[in-house]
Amino acid sequence: MDSDLTLPWPVRLHPVQLTSLASLASRVALTAFAVALPALAQTSSESAVTGDVPMADYLALLQQISPAAHQGARAYLQAHERRCRRSLSSRELRQAMAEGDGDPLLMAMIRASHLQDGPGLTRLGEQVSCTRKAAR
Questions:
Q1: Is residue 73 in a domain?
Q2: DSSP per residue, 108-134
Q3: What is the pLDDT of residues 20-64, one digit of tens each?
Q4: Is this structure's pTM higher than 0.70?
Q5: C-alpha to C-alpha distance for 132 and 32, rounded to whole angstroms
C-alpha cells in the first residue's frame, strides 16, 4: 500500500491550519492518555480509591507523549502553586486536561509551550485562577 497521498489539485495549508492540526493531534493524544491513566493508576489500593497517581509519574508520561504538554502542565502547576499557595494533585491536573474541552488556560499554556513563547507562557501563568471552574 502506498503511504503517499496524491491529490489531483494543489493543497496549501495556512500556518494557522497546521497549528490547528497539531493542536488537534495533541488533544487527541492527551485525551486518550487521560482516559487510559486511571487504569494504570490502580496498582495500589490507595490509588484505586482516590484515582490519583504520583505527579512525577503523570508528568513523565506527559513528557513521553508530548514535550509541549509536559512543559505547559509544569508551568501551569508552578503558576497555580505560586498564586494559590497550594499544589494541584495529579487528579486535578488530569481533570483540567480532560474534562470538556480542557481548562482553556491550561490548553493555552500548552500551546505557548509548543510555540516556545516564554513571555506568553508567563502572561498566561499570571491568569491562573484558584477557584475550580465547571468544564464545558
A1: yes
A2: HHHHHHHTT-HHHHHHHHTT--SSPPP
A3: 545 555 665 555 555 455 444 444 433 333 567 899 999 999 999
A4: no
A5: 23
Nearest 5°: phi and psi at 11? Answer: -115, 120
Whether residue 53 lies inside any domain: the answer is yes
Residue 93 lies in a domain: yes
Q: Residue 67: pLDDT band by 50, 70, 90 thresholds?
A: very high
Q: How many domains does the chain have?
A: 1
Contacts 24+ apart (CB under 8 A), 99-105: 99/135, 100/135, 100/136, 101/135, 101/136, 102/27, 102/30, 103/133, 105/76, 105/129
Residue 93, domain extent: 22-125
